[in-house]
Amino acid sequence: MPSTRVPAAGSAPAARQNLILVVTCLALGTVVAAMASLNVALPDLARETHATQTQLSWIIDSYSLVFASLLLPAGALGDRFGRRRALLAGLTLFGAGSAAAALTTEPSTLIALRGVLGVGAALVMPATLSTITSTFPRAQRARAVSVWAAVAGASALVGLFATGALLEGWSWRSVFLLNVVLALIALVGTLLFVPESAEPKQPRLDVGGALLAVVGLVALVYSVIEAPTRGWANPVTLAGIGLGLAVLTGFVLFELRRENPLLDPRLFRNPHFAAGSLSIMLQFFVFFGFIFVMMQYLQLVRGDSALMAATAMLPMAVTMVPVSRVAPVLVARFGFRGPWVAGLVGVAAGMGVLSRLDASSPYWLIATGLVPLGAGMGLAMTPATTSITDALPRSLQNVGSAMNDLARELGGALGIAVLGSLLSAAYRDHLSLPGLPDHVADAARSSLAAAHAIGGPVSGRATTAFIDGMHLALLGAGAAALFAALAVALLLRSAPRPEQAADDHEGPRPIGREKQPSYL
Questions:
Q1: Where is average pLDDT lowest: 123-132, 220-229, 353-362, 398-407?
Q2: What CA–CA distance (Å, rounded) separates 478 from 353?
Q3: What are the φ/ψ torsions at residue 201 (nearest 5 degrees)?
Q4: Are the beta carbons of 159 and 182 closer than 8 angstroms?
Q5: Residues 256, 214: Cα–Cα separation, whole Å
Q6: Which of 103, 264, 309, 511 is 20 to 30 A from 296 (CA-CA)?
Q7: Taking each helix axis from N to C terminus, what angle separates 207-230 and 53-81, rounded to the nearest 10 degrees?
């Protein structure tokens, strides 16, 4: 296939290859960290911008939602018109949006600007991996991709710690200013060191499918986030959820008729592909929704500083990393199904423990929940990712890689929307404030930070209502993890190993070996 890929990239000196890897991983880490980092600043945001609980959900989720919705079409545009161009455009948008966000004081403006950052992130993420796989020689590609995967996995937690450290001395605006600095460094590095590559002969972009996917996801997530304000039984809420589901159904029917669909629904007939996609989506549904809820609990209920709140997550990170390294050995020894289901059950168990927290809970109880959560995430992640990639022939590895990223970002967006909505609805419903003027009561119901600002008995009642909402949200997260465990167990009950499915197309593949992802 003709392309504009740089011919000499594979023979570039090792020093040049390392510079390319550093620049692309910096760009990747910048946009992935932004999904989680602002969660640490939610109490500061609520106090300084007077954002309601619903607006706080939107400030976090507008980025994730736009990121997830545009990930597939943005990756296709980068492949067609140039990955270096996509990186430059994405980093420019991300940096400019961050600079503007640091200057705003309006929650609605901040929500819109976070959406702009999401557009930039959608251009950046697929372009980073495609640049690596198109410029590194085959002998060095596996090492480079493993570094990319490690950065993608660790950046969210690194973002939490970096934000916590910044908030010790500065306001929430410093988080966006850090984005500007990182984006600028990555932009200069891209201009100096990253070669251009593209595949201009790719099929025409599925614009209709992309529009349907965006409209359906936005309608669904918007309705879920706004439900606590309007009411779950409100006709507008029900109509919005119904519209979102109807448009997404239309997306599936539309894609079935396309010769070159954005995402072929027939792929989900493969039980390993379906199980892996569902598992990744629900794991990140739990993870990002949990971070959104937990950062507020640690700072607004327990009174921890931003840095202490981020540090409190260490048991999860410390457990997740070693277990994820052991997971391939367990999969090779026991098969995919057992370790995978056990990991998801561990995630559910962690959520069950954390749902018992109250205002006076000791830290050891938090750590007791974080350990099975981290171990479960680490144990389930490897078989889920491997099942997606190994279920497809080599000619469709770009689809597997894109689906893995889409499931992760979409799960995060839905997790923040659904769990944040459950938290907000229970908080409003359980906060009883008899005898207060309406405007004071409305302010207290808008967010826990606002209730604390009012003080007195209102603060105590609001804390109790928030904990009730947190219990509901975390139990919902645990239910999602248990559903994922049940679905994986049923889907893989009689399915052949994924490498056997791939063998039908391309010959044998070593058991237990994970295909390296590629957008090419």
A1: 398-407
A2: 10
A3: -90, 10
A4: no
A5: 17
A6: 103
A7: 170
CA distance 418 to 399: 27
* pLDDT tens per residue across span 416-463: 888 988 998 899 888 888 877 888 888 888 878 888 888 888 888 999
At 235, list the tokens: 């006709």
Return the pLDDT at 231. Answer: 78
Q: What is the pTM (predicted TM-score) of this model?
A: 0.82
User: Quick one: which of 230, 378, 254 has its CA closest to 316?
Assistant: 378
How far is the C-alpha of 289 from the C-alpha of 416, rounded, in Å? 4
Q: What is the pLDDT of residue 2?
A: 41
**Minimal CA–CA distance to 167: which of 303, 310, 25?**
310
Tokens 């000499």, residue? 8
The tokens describing 518, both together, are: 């590629």
For residue 89, what are the CA distances in angstroms to 80, 133, 150, 436, 446? 14, 20, 24, 51, 37
Residue 507: band (very low, low, confident or very high) from pLDDT cuts 50, 70, 90: very low
Phi, psi of 471, deg, nearest 5: -55, -45
Q: How far is CA 34 from the centre of its chain?
A: 10
**Whole-number Cα distances in Å, 440 to 56, 451, 455, 463:** 19, 9, 11, 16
What tokens appear for 207 in the block? 């614009």
Residue whose C-alpha is closest to residue 300's, from 494, 453, 468: 453
Mean pLDDT of the region 142-165: 79
Q: Tell me the per-residue pLDDT of 181-210, one tens digit each, with 9 for 90 and over.
A: 999 999 999 999 888 877 767 677 778 888
Reading phi first (left if > 0) and then psi (alpha if -120 to 50, else beta), residue 393 is in beta
Residues 250, 217: Cα–Cα separation, whole Å: 12
Report how far residue 388's alpha carbon sits from residue 392's, in angstroms, rounded to the nearest whole number: 7
- Cα–Cα distances in angstroms (integers) from residue 112 to residues 67, 108, 345, 348, 421, in the given order: 13, 6, 37, 34, 19
Predicted pLDDT of residue 13: 62
Cα–Cα dist 227/418, whole Å: 10
Query: How far is the C-alpha of 41 from the C-alpha of 299, rounded, in Å?
Result: 9
Q: What does the DSSP 8-state code read for residue 262? A: S
Q: Residue 214 contacts by C-beta under 8 Å, 6 or more apart in sequence?
A: 69, 70
Q: Nearest-CA neighbor of 417 among 280, 285, 278, 294?
A: 285
Residue whose C-alpha is closest to residue 488's, from 384, 402, 395: 384
Question: What is the full DSSP assignment across 139-160?
Answer: HHHHHHHHHHHHHHHHHHHHHH
Of 283, 259, 29, 331, which is closest to residue 155 (Cα–Cα)?
29
